[in-house]
Amino acid sequence: MTITLHYFGPPGRAEVTRLLLTLGGVQFEEKRYGFGSPEWLEFKKKTPFGQAPVIELDNGEMIAQTAAVEAYAATMGGLLPKDPLSLARVFEGVHLSHEIIEPFYNSMSIKDEAARLEKRKDLVKNYLPAHLKLISDYVNAKIQKTNAFLFGETPSYADLAFFNAMGMLASGIFDGVPSFKEIFADYPVLLTLHKRVGTSPAIKAFYAKETDDIRKNYRYD
Fold first, then answer.
1. How is domain 84-200 classified at the architecture level of CATH?
2. How confident is the model over 81-115, as pLDDT tens digits?
3. Residue 63, helix vs strand vs coil
4. For burial by CB atoms within 10 Å, which of 102, 142, 158, 192 has the most?
């Protein structure tokens, strides 16, 4: 079965899916569109909700909405626990990772540039510290037990979600947000987790081929 992932060039809301399929050893194809490009505008008409990411199967079926696309990729890659409680814990981590990045995605809807920059400045100053402390404590408690990743010796869906949220936040897409090192300097355990994911063999190999500047915080030499 052929799996085609449709999205734009940046990591955004498709990167975790890319990583899940890669880590799970699932063969897939990609179609990356330019924002507002004729190719995207044409394909957009065919999507269930006029949005991306979308996974298209070779029988023509499409899966839309980020959570559904990720769940499909994680299932296909055999990366979800069978035990209900363990599964819930993984999703708990995935959704916690969203607290890093979602307010910044939401800020993109602010049309006025000055107001958008002011909102992001406020988020960096007044939102991020408390949430990164909470997340840092969560991650620390997990990896103290495993001495590796959040739930064991290999990256989980949740590890990939944190990895992407951190990299995306400081990717340069959100103008007004400080550098990767500045944001996470006071949270060494988050940097440790990020590096462990980024240097795991399959993920490192994936980013060796992704040479764009927007993914500079995803790559480890």
1. Up-down Bundle (1.20)
2. 999 999 999 999 999 999 999 999 999 999 999 99
3. strand
4. 158
